[in-house]
Amino acid sequence: MLAVQKSVGRQLKSAATVGSRPQAFIRCLSSASHDDVMDVLIVGGGAVGCGLARLLNQSAPSLKVGLLEAREAPSNKPSEIPNARSYALSPASLELIGPNVRSKLQLGYYDSMQVWQANSPASLTFTTQDLDADPLKAPYLGACVEDGPLVASLWNEIQGTTKCWTNTTVKDMQVGDTESLAQVTTSTGETIQTALLVGADGGNSWVRKTCDISRTGAEYGLHALTFTVELESSLNKRAFQRFLGDGGPMALLPTYSPNHAVVVWSTSPDTIEQWKDSAPEELVAHLNDCLLEGPQRIPPLLERETSSSSVVSNLLYCRTPFGYPTLWSRHGVAPPRTQVYATAKNNQDCVSQKFLSSILLSSKCLYQGQGSLGR
Asked: Which of 122, 211, 229, 232 is the Cys-Cys partner for 117 at CB 3.0 to 4.6 Å?
């Protein structure tokens, strides 16, 4: 999100002398009462744009806020299966969206997380008690929420307090100098003036590029593949994340459905190309291999020459019947397994070792959330 501020500093300074309640940026201008003049105009009606509008309505209700959205008004269509396009929100973010919005969402809360490293004995499990011993102060670590319902709930929340345009894009804009308002011409031919123009139109923001606003960033060579999977049993409000050898993590996140989880796999573009069009059974087998394998022992630091315990070496892990090191089974929890329904009748022995279902809904849903991170 970015903002272009015009003629704001002088008005904020004068507003500060009026009283404790903030005044609108441009109330002293004769044109401020016109419908086409805004204090804040937000371009983009996604989670960021709608979330900002809600916060402005709440914290500065005297401001005249407008929002331009290129698509239809979002609708919260109920679905039996969680959508792969989801977010993991922290307690602070959940507090930010407000209780009214939260009450309308189906949230997949998690109160613990298990993280481990590929090809090493490193593992970490933490719970809400690591945040605060009082469960009432820290009831959860976060929650997984679908993008569509989140945006729709935020959109509904700002109706009546934010002027919204749908099916409308920015065709042209003039930011002028510091003494004038920014002027936006929309795709419908309407002209809107604003003291503060906010670009919430995505990572490739047209507003940012048009205003020639620089940014500092670097590509880190990872893309994301995300999809919904069916589970044999609930994750019991625990999220799992394993850092793989290719440099990216694979996360398994609880959803509002006890029978489904969302997988977010950050990896190289070549790996994405390899797996995005693969058969569901092959992908599930690979996920099982990655997520069912616990921490690994590493070679001794020194060669063991005698049986003396004084020789420094790494811990030697004893494998359990489930294939996990003793240390893992003592401090970690194996994710639940599921049947691979497509091959259950012909390969019953293999089925017991599977943990993600090959009934991955449909190829459309399976790769619905696929995309590039940081772009």
From this structure: 122
